[in-house]
Amino acid sequence: MSFFDYFRSNKKPTSAELAKERLQIIVAHERGKRTNPDYLPKMQQEIIDVIKKYVSIDQDKVSVQLDSNEDCSVLEVNVTLPD
Amino acid sequence: MAKIIVVTSGKGGVGKTTTSAAIGTGLALNGFKTVVIDFDVGLRNLDLIMGCERRVVYDFVNVIKEEATLNQALIKDKRTDNLFILPASQTRDKDALTQEGVEKVLDELSETFDYIICDSPAGIEKGAQMALYFADVAIVTTNPEVSSVRDSDRILGILQSKSRRAENGDSPVEEHLLLTRYNPTRVEDGEMLSVADVEDILAIPLLGVIPESEAVLKASNAGVPVILDTEADAGQAYDDAVQRLLGKELEHRFLQVPKKGFFQRILGGR
Ligand SMILES: Nc1ncnc2c1ncn2[C@@H]1O[C@H](COP(=O)(O)OP(=O)(O)OP(=O)(O)O)[C@@H](O)[C@H]1O
Ligand SMILES: [Mg+2]
């Protein structure tokens, strides 16, 4: 780091830097959602309906998430059961 | 077999029609038989930018509805050989374009044309999806500004999932970034996203950078595609983009603030 960079790095980011940072975050988030298969919301609802047949749970106590990496996809279903 | 190129963006007003007119004209100047189709049904404007607004008799929707033949609707450009325009309808709504109808027209054009340029309407809904559906190549027109970049990314998502190529599992639509209305001074001042910033985020190959230029308004005032203004920065930048589209490797120009000449500095000119 040069002498001048030292001062520069203490400065707040330029407005272009701020724009880039915000864009990187929102674009990554929206790309993540894009790769979810279309059937995911319906499947989530059906899983909830099946669980409800046996235990009474709140709709919002269930989270369904699909994570993919290079070699496999993991479907994670989290259900908080009532005490 | 024609190559179908869509000029698309998501966000409105970024320069799609300006680009369609310029690139279409550029391809025709290089000897390729080219037609530019206005997909902006209800908001036709390509005719005005290309200076043929008074010669429109039939339009794209008339052809789809078989109220006119393709030959009756196609307008032959007066200035540039090999160049034709298929105008949009001014009176109908976007639902007038059906996928089967569009496909039939594109198939018929494909038999005699080398390039078909589809000038997309703004948005990511039906009209924009219709314009990109049959594309082989996409020119993603983007301004160095947050909402335009984000919308371009969404359009890329649609190209990758809802185009004919994606649905049929063919090789994907060839994606090109065209950064328009670029202002090197504001980039240097840290007020505007740089070419590198936008490339970083969208991660697709760069076809060209068109500077913010007074020549564009002048060209649209006159109804002459800006690429014909060979003196102007924007005209030259569009010409470079056409050459790259045709496979030439050219360095990108107009990315730096123009250096002031000795006299300009002394006289304080712009
Ligand atoms: N490089 C440029 N420099 C200066 N002005 C430009 C440039 N490119 C486009 N413009 C101006 O921006 C405005 C919008 O351009 P244009 O109509 O081509 O955009 P569009 O994307 O087709 O819009 P819409 O989404 O409404 O169809 C016009 O006034 C045009 O003159
Ligand atoms: Mg337009």
From TrEMBL, chain A:
Name the Gene3D superfamilies for this protein. Cell division topological specificity factor MinE
**Entries under Pfam families matching the protein:** MinE
Which SUPFAM superfamilies is this protein grouped with? Answer: Cell division protein MinE topological specificity domain
Record keywords, A-Z = Cell cycle, Cell division
Give the GO biological process terms: cell division; regulation of division septum assembly
Q: Which GO terms describe its molecular function?
A: identical protein binding
Q: Which InterPro entries match?
A: MinE (IPR005527), MinE_sf (IPR036707)
Q: Its family?
A: Belongs to the MinE family.
Q: What does this protein do?
A: Prevents the cell division inhibition by proteins MinC and MinD at internal division sites while permitting inhibition at polar sites. This ensures cell division at the proper site by restricting the formation of a division septum at the midpoint of the long axis of the cell.
Q: What is this protein called?
A: Cell division topological specificity factor
UniProtKB/TrEMBL annotation, chain B:
Start and end residues of each AAA domain: 2-156
Question: Domain of life of the organism in this record?
Answer: Bacteria
Q: Which residues bind ATP?
A: K11, G12, G13, V14, G15, K16, T17, T18
What GO terms in the biological process aspect are recorded for it?
division septum assembly; negative regulation of cell division
Quote a single Gene Ontology cellular component term. Answer: cytoplasmic side of plasma membrane
Pfam families according to UniProt: AAA_31
Q: Recall the GO molecular function terms of this protein's record.
A: ATP binding; ATP hydrolysis activity
Keyword Cell division carried by entry: yes
Q: Which stretches are transmembrane?
A: none
Keyword tags: ATP-binding, Cell cycle, Cell division, Nucleotide-binding, Septation
User: What family does this chain come from, according to its entry?
Assistant: Belongs to the ParA family. MinD subfamily.
Oligomer and partners = Interacts with MinC and FtsZ.
Record-linked PANTHER family: SEPTUM SITE-DETERMINING PROTEIN MIND HOMOLOG, CHLOROPLASTIC, SEPTUM SITE-DETERMINING PROTEIN MIND HOMOLOG, CHLOROPLASTIC-RELATED
What does this gene product do?
ATPase required for the correct placement of the division site. Cell division inhibitors MinC and MinD act in concert to form an inhibitor capable of blocking formation of the polar Z ring septums. Rapidly oscillates between the poles of the cell to destabilize FtsZ filaments that have formed before they mature into polar Z rings.
The protein's name in its UniProt record: Septum site-determining protein MinD
